Amino acid sequence: MTAPEPDLIGRTCVVTGASGGIGMHVAIGLARMGATVAIVCRNRARGETAVARISAEGRSESVSLFLADFAELGQVRRVAEQLRQRLPAIHVLVNNVGGAGAKASIGPDGVETTFLVNHLAPFLLTNLLQDRLTADAPARVVTVASRAHVRTTLDFDDLDSAKAYSTFRAYARSKLANVLFNRELARRLTGTGVTATCCHPGVVATGIWDLGFPFSLIMPLAKLWMIAPEEGADTPLWLASAPEVEGASGGYYDRRKPVPVAPQGADDAAAKRLWDVSAHMVGLG
Ligand SMILES: NC(=O)c1ccc[n+]([C@@H]2O[C@H](COP(=O)([O-])OP(=O)(O)OC[C@H]3O[C@@H](n4cnc5c(N)ncnc54)[C@H](OP(=O)(O)O)[C@@H]3O)[C@@H](O)[C@H]2O)c1
Questions:
Q1: N or C: which end of the chain has fewer CB within 10 A?
Q2: pLDDT beyond 90 at 237
Q3: Residue 46: what pLDDT?
Q4: 3-class DSSP assignment, residue 223
Q5: Is 171 in the active site?
Q6: What average pLDDT does this structure show over 172-201?
Q7: How many whole angstroms from 96 Cα to the centroid of ligand 1?
Q8: For a pocket test of ligand 1, which of 51, 72, 96 has the largest count of ligand atoms closer than 8 A to its C-beta?
Q9: Half-sphere exposure of residue 99, counting CA atoms within 13 Å on the CB side?
Q10: Is 254 helix (H, G, I), strand (E, B) or coil?
Q11: Residue 141: partners with Cβ closer than 8 Å, 6 or more residues away
């Protein structure tokens, strides 16, 4: 027998990157549980379509759209301020935005985009919302990482992989950064009533694989073997809502089970160093 869905009436949840893929289904799941849902998207039209679907499929009293392109730290700062001002509380932050770039691209902040969007932007957003989460505790931060983290290491002389770019290296490093971020965040949040967990959602048939030529030659076939976005949303949604994980912090989960991270993801010194370097890069240090 499956457990009844948690009741999230009165809880406010922020999901980034909910215009499609895993994030939209996390947001739908939270709305079905009655949460007030705020989604952060970069494209107004896709965001409005997502709000309509999340509202129609859920039983939330409020589903709202906030706009920010995570490839610009200024936009992350602006949306953090809007979330702080407009939401009654913040009980759950799901750091889901993510992507991979077929080619290297350096944005206005002077950082390669994959590392910026996947790590620095959620790092900054979480930091800017941390006092609200703490004030509204019990609260949860869930970061959608990836098993891709096992196949790489960080290079502190080339954190954003700009010097030696490959799509996979940049993506895997950004996901290792998610794992280390989660580790250090959980340590820093000890005793606050705010938990930090991260997960691998599975290999999921979403837009993240639409990287153009030559990937387009194999992806339609490869996607047939991947799980659907609804299924990929299951573990992050569970981490965001399930009573069973109330109070659990610091873990990395796959299919609702805590699993060990790769040794390079369990390196406390690297986690602390990455935190300090990231804080400096986003102007918090
Ligand atoms: N799919 C997988 O197999 C897999 C495996 C492991 C981990 N993950 C992780 O799961 C998370 C969700 O990915 P997904 O698979 O659901 O991919 P997706 O369908 O491409 O969704 C990514 C979401 O992030 C948004 N986004 C991307 N770049 C952005 C930016 N610069 N600013 C604001 N929003 C941006 C996208 O918005 P647009 O609609 O505007 O593009 C979309 O809403 C990512 O963190 C990814 O690393 C995925």
A1: N
A2: yes
A3: 98
A4: helix
A5: yes
A6: 98
A7: 7
A8: 96
A9: 24
A10: strand
A11: 92, 93, 95, 126, 133, 185, 189, 194, 195, 196, 197
Query: Which of 141-150, 212-221, 257-266, 274-283 is predicted least confidently?
Result: 212-221
Can you give the pTM of this predicted structure?
Answer: 0.97
Yes or no: say if 144 and 118 are a contact pair by the CB < 8 Å rule: no
How far is the C-alpha of 13 from the C-alpha of 270, rounded, in Å?
Answer: 30
Question: How far does residue 256's CA lie from ligand 1's centre (Å)?
Answer: 20
**pLDDT tens, 130-146?**
999 999 999 999 999 99
How would DSSP label each residue in 28-82?
HHHHHTT-EEEEEES-HHHHHHHHHHHHHHS--S-EEEEE--TT-HHHHHHHHHH
What's the pLDDT at 271?
A: 98
CATH number of 12-281: 3.40.50.720, 3.40.190.10, 3.20.20.140, 3.20.20.80?
A: 3.40.50.720
CA 97 to chain CA centroid, Å, is: 5
Structure tokens at 279: 């804080």
Beta partners for 41? 67
C-alpha of residue 151 to centroid of ligand 1, in Å: 20
Select from 15, 24, 26, 42 the residue to mutate for testing ligand 1; criterion: most ligand atoms less than 8 Å from CB. 42
67 compared with 215, residue with greater pLDDT: 67
Mean per-residue pLDDT for 181-189? 98
Q: At residue 244, what are phi and psi to the nearest 5 degrees?
A: -60, -25
The residue contributing the CA closest to ligand 1 atom 38 is: 19
The proportion of the chain whose per-residue pLDDT surpasses 70, expressed as a percent, equals: 99
